[in-house]
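Sample A.
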Amino acid sequence: MRIYIRKTTKMKLQGSIVTGIITGAVILLSAFGPNQQTWTAPPSADKVTNPVIANEKNIATGKDLFIKTCAICHGKKGKGDGPKSAELDKPVGDFTKENFSKQSDGAIFWKLTEGKKPMPSFKKEMTEEQRWMVIDYIREFGPATKK
């Protein structure tokens, strides 16, 4: 005995399958796609330049501040592997990567100032000058700098 499916029922079934596949793909892309980990500062931030001279003293101060406030998540070498990073629901920024070093100092300053969960804002934790010194220090981790 053969069972025949009407053409309209078969088309509806195929449409449902295609819709399910597309919906699944969209969910996966939104959960794991490139935009999930992208944190972009506003374009106006790129116009802001670092007023602090990256000399030995300022970089040393930036290092001290980094170790006290940032290394817990970003790690002592800035690779995003600090002891607290494993507890977070988002990957921690790796300052040794090219995509980080391509950012302007102004963009990094904006992110450090504003924060974005799980990273806190350092607007009240550090002065503007201290935040710039931290940026001078973390530039030491990367392959190249962009001011």
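Sample B.
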Amino acid sequence: MNNTVINFNTNSKLKKEAKKVLDEMGLTLSVALNASLRRIIAEKRIEFTVPEIPNARLKRSFKNADKMIKGGKYKIYKTHEDLEKALFS
């Protein structure tokens, strides 16, 4: 297999953190990047995921909703059927 060199710019902190994680996994940056390139080729797409950690705004919304529920401003339905009865009666 012919190897070629790819140069790209990245933040030094990002590279250092990625290298640390990969080292703990027993992998190199080269292995991880090659795996990523192979996946792009095979799937013909790149998937970017969003962490499932709520931001400050969403956390405030949850807190406000909880206060409203506890304050009796909203009714909670235990089943889909109960909700339908309330909506259609």
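B remarks: DSSP finds four helices and no strands in the chain. Residues 56-88 form one domain.
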